Amino acid sequence: MAVTLQQIADKAGVSRRTVDRALNNKGHVNLELAEKIIEISKELGYMPNKAGRAMAMAKRNLKIGVIVQAVETPFIQDVVAGIEDAKLKVESLGGTVDIFQTPGINANTTIEIMETLKRKGYHAIALMPSESKELALAMRCFVKEYKIPIVTFNSDLENTGRLCFIGQNGIRSGRTTARLMGDIIGNQGKVLVVSGESTNNSLNTRVEGFEAEIKKNHPNVILLEPQYANDQNELSREITEKILDGHPDIRGIYIVGYGGKGVCDCLIARKIEKKIKVIAHDLIEENIRYLEKDCIDYLIGQDPFVQGYEPTMLLYRLLFESVSPKSPYRYTDILIKTKYNI
Amino acid sequence: MAVTLQQIADKAGVSRRTVDRALNNKGHVNLELAEKIIEISKELGYMPNKAGRAMAMAKRNLKIGVIVQAVETPFIQDVVAGIEDAKLKVESLGGTVDIFQTPGINANTTIEIMETLKRKGYHAIALMPSESKELALAMRCFVKEYKIPIVTFNSDLENTGRLCFIGQNGIRSGRTTARLMGDIIGNQGKVLVVSGESTNNSLNTRVEGFEAEIKKNHPNVILLEPQYANDQNELSREITEKILDGHPDIRGIYIVGYGGKGVCDCLIARKIEKKIKVIAHDLIEENIRYLEKDCIDYLIGQDPFVQGYEPTMLLYRLLFESVSPKSPYRYTDILIKTKYNI
DNA sequence: CTGAAAGCGCTTACAG
DNA sequence: CTGAAAGCGCTTACAG
Asked: Which end of chain B is more exposed for a tag (fewer CB within 10 A), N or C?
């Protein structure tokens, strides 16, 4: 049987309450006594029982709010699945998790929901920020003034006092892809980079990592100027058509954002999908279909489930177990997938 | 606030005890009443509180035994790390997990420990079986006669009544590697396969998957006869030297088991480590060193942490929450790693 | 500065 | 066939 607070209390000749105060630095305990209690707890190898703690905390009715943007995209849907799993888990432990889903990217919407959450007495917030001074300001205020901890996921906003960011490391992701691309095209020839919106930071860091790695370790690979398809398949197809007309000797295409379908349909129409190596991001259904057809050769995944699950669970551990994250960054795994290990 | 048993009991006009019996099919409840209770619980969206359940179960002092073989190998050490993490978690919820580590592979040792566990009243066992009729017999007896559930991890033994296997899918792992190998050597030329012990089933299925995929989709790749280095670096180096003498035009080497160091040291001595593409298994420290040096190009991982963590947690859910695994197979992710996404 | 007591939601012997 | 009660290990108002 595991050691309990009561056993420590008995051995120290005090009450459970006092042991609790000594162990959790709550003050109001004679210093020597506190030291003695800590000593005994170490000796006995005390580990707090999580179930007991969760039960006791349930009385407080702790509430976590999660704000999600761009819910219309398939990738974010996978993130939401992770949030819902965490919600189930937290609620089966006596907490409350409410998910607020909004379409598109709009910092003001996020700020409005944050205000509502504050009014309704939520104890912690997880959100997916976009680049916005107002949002940064609001986040700082929530953390510093209102003492409501905030965690960011999928995208980050620095210098806001947010506790932790859970998401991908764009630079490493781009480097990983570059190494793979270099290897599968035999380290030579032209490569086209098709990105999404030119203002999307997260895509830009991928491209940055990709270009840096190609320049450093694959000198015989020629990178064409990056193209921006604004996450639209019509545009990504158009771009591919145009570039292929000008550069029929392209050996590889790197699809950085959404838009794989447009690129692949162009290659298939020209019957060159087996000749040109294609790497795309995110294990969404549409991409997987082209992977199965050998039109996309590799997919780079960023573990959307974890991006949804972890923020909520991290806040649970913070509120229920007073456990803070070890690092302010929690990068999700960079997955390399073929049709055989999907 | 979440719905509790008490709320259902109040609404149905019975006691908590009766609700429990109705919801968990424990009998001794009037059929119509049971139906009414189930109806109410659905209506209210009842979900049992895991913390409450864990607390109540703690009284039973449920004990899980985990038997690990070949603990001297670095890969299994990573598995043990996963078991220890699960042990911490289960024990902080009021259960007990004891880990029994034995060197080498010996079915009789495993059987002896199983007997001890039975004598000491353990409630469930996770083990890493080797091919053995006696062990298969013992497992069947434990499951059927003693009603002690068993879960296998890392390696499996079928038709033993074991509840679930947690580990890799060797065939898919081999296929994944073959696709990657084909791509990075330009789908042509000679490939050498260096395996471990020729009697190791798990390695043999990897080779099987690898060869099947090469034959099917990479017709211009020439596979040399597989070599067996018995998981020894001296032998793997010797083999590589010999084969390279006979086939200086080799383009790729697939290291299936332990022995990457021997192969790499040979390539480095001949200064051809950048010319020949090398893929090896398992993210152990030794392999990672050669990956960082670009001598090994890709590592295929099989998530040892999950192989240790999941069996224990699965048995916890079984004992504490009466939740059985959905499938008798739980395959771990097949990871493709370069030095950039390790 | 310290303690006795209630209660979180569940399971389970024990009565009836 | 059903209920009242105890207890799992913790936290926290409330007393003193």
From this structure: N
